[in-house]
């Protein structure tokens, strides 16, 4: 890195912990934004120093309304104060499963509209981690560099260090089977997919899993865990098909509502995931690895640091 003072790394409040680790990986100081809340709940933001001519790096998950808005404010603030470039990594993109509207439903495809808001704030580069759908990458007019960061290499390294014995990767549906097959090829292990049908917004039925799991540990893979309903059903089908143990692997550990308790009450012994979703830490159920080294590598490569 030629001149560390040319780079300023900030984060929205939700992604501060992850950004601190990215800064350490890059050998940069983390820059704390000045934040205050007024009596009427308006939020004050200020950069602590002049960023004109600097390369601004922003880490910001958009898992809720305030985090999404804060990311927009940071991008637009960087543009207002003439940063040389504005480079954004979104570890977790909120509404990412809403990338299209059903015909005649008049629903708003917020995966696209929210991502379009990020692009319209005029960053130079935006990277997303393990998107549910790459459709959102194209929600701009072609003047922004985008990247879809795949965490597969981190996952492979992590699984190889675990004592899982002989295992099979299982996709909870055929839609995610290509990603699971790619992982399986890197791990040199078998893979299969469950039969799943969705009959309501958050309700699914998993009917069966191939007996390729018989006598092995089934590792169910998905991009995210929200309520956990279909994953727990898939775990039960794996055990019925002869699996000796069941673990779960997902990048984004949303764990909404009572998902944690549902997993604790299930036959699943371990949930493995990353720290992309704010607040995720390892405990008796979760085994969390950090994407910070990968994010730092992406920024270093893109910016030629």
Give structural notes.
The chain has 305 residues and is α/β, with parallel strands linked by helices. It folds into two domains: 4-149 and 293-303, Rossmann fold, CATH 3.40.50; 152-274, Rossmann fold. The chain contains eight helices and 15 strands. The protein has helices at residues 16-26, 65-80, 110-120, 152-161, 177-187, 229-240, 259-264, 292-303, and strands at 7-11, 34-37, 43-46, 55-59, 85-90, 125-129, 145-149, 167-171, 191-193, 195-200, 203-208, 217-225, 245-253, 270-274, 286-289. The protein has a six-stranded parallel beta sheet with strand order 9-8-12-13-14-15. Helix 3 links the parallel strand 5 (85-90) and strand 6. Helix 1 crosses helix 8 (292-303) and helix 4 crosses helix 5 (177-187). The longest helix is centred in the first third of the chain and has 16 residues, at 65-80. The mean pLDDT is 91.
Which key features would you list for this structure?
single chain; 305 residues; alpha/beta; Rossmann fold; 2 domains; 6-stranded parallel beta sheet; 5-stranded parallel beta sheet; 15 strands; globular
> Regarding quaternary structure, how should these chains be classified?
single chain
Adjacency order of strands in the biggest sheet: 9-8-12-13-14-15
Low-confidence stretches: none
Radius of gyration: 20 Å
Briefly note the CATH topology name of the largest domain: Rossmann fold
What order do the SSEs take from the amino end to the carboxyl end, as H and E? EHEEEHEHEEHEHEEEEHEHEEH
